[in-house]
């Protein structure tokens, strides 16, 4: 969790039963990626819903993509399953199988270890809003077939390096 949103979340009552998702402040640090990759996901805003309730086995984000923004670098996980559910807008889902136009009410899942790299691209003039759910399995690794970056989840934080192992 990011420091700025952690302070705002800590100001909520200790035992939250239910809350309007829009009342949860967005992450203050828009991306964990190092540059030059962080700027490529500008226009993405995440509200970490699961953290408000103290969820530790999986994360839930309410995510907005401005027109022209993308959800992440195209990636796959070694151990983390991921799931998305589209609430508003019509993003393009890019996977190893090609492009698929999504619409509200549609969902997609990405099983860990398959190597099926994926991300959403908002190539429309409207804002896209979706839920993303992912587990927090220790030792997960992220692969990025289109970019010179790789990631490993260590002690709950992503560590990034070049594909040759040189750290960013």
Characteristics:
168 residues; Jelly Rolls; mainly beta; disordered N terminus
Can you characterise this structure?
The protein contains 2 helices and 12 strands. It is globular and about 45 Å long. The model is unreliable at 1-5 (pLDDT under 50). It has a 5-stranded antiparallel sheet. It has one domain: Jelly Rolls, CATH 2.60.120.10. The relative contact order is 0.18. The protein has helices at 3-10, 49-52, and strands at 44-48, 58-65, 76-77, 82-88, 92-95, 98-101, 107-110, 118-121, 128-135, 141-143, 150-154, 157-161. Strand 10 (141-143) and strand 11 form a beta hairpin. It is mainly beta.
Per-chain topology:
Layout (H helix, E strand, L loop, with lengths): L2 H8 L33 E5 H4 L5 E8 L10 E2 L4 E7 L3 E4 L2 E4 L5 E4 L7 E4 L6 E8 L5 E3 L6 E5 L2 E5 L7
Antiparallel strand pairs: 1-2, 2-9, 3-10, 4-7, 4-9, 5-6, 5-8, 10-11, 11-12
What is the SS-derived class? Answer: mainly beta
Give me the strand/helix succession. Answer: HEHEEEEEEEEEEE
Report the CATH topology name. Jelly Rolls
Total helical elements: 2
For the record, the CATH class is Mainly Beta
Low-pLDDT runs of 5+ residues are 1-5
CATH superfamily grouping: Jelly Rolls
């Amino acid at each position: 969790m990011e420091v700025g949103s952690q302070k705002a979340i800590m100001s909520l009552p200790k035992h939250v039963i239910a809350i309007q998702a829009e009342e949860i402040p967005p992450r203050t640090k828009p991306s964990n990626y190092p540059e030059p990759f962080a700027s490529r996901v500008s226009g993405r805003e995440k509200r970490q819903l699961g953290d408000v309730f103290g969820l530790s086995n999986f994360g839930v984000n309410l995510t907005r993509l401005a027109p022209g923004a993308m959800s992440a670098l195209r990636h796959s996980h070694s151990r983390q399953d991921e799931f998305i559910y589209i609430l508003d807008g019509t993003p393009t889902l890019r996977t190893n199988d090609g492009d698929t136009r999504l619409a509200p009410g549609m969902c997609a899942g990405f099983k860990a270890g398959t190597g099926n790299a994926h991300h959403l691209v908002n190539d429309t003039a409207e804002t896209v809003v979706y839920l993303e759910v992912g587990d927090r399995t220790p030792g997960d690794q992220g692969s990025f077939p289109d970019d010179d970056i790789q990631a490993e989840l260590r002690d709950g934080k992503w560590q990034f390096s070049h594909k040759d192992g040189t750290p960013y």
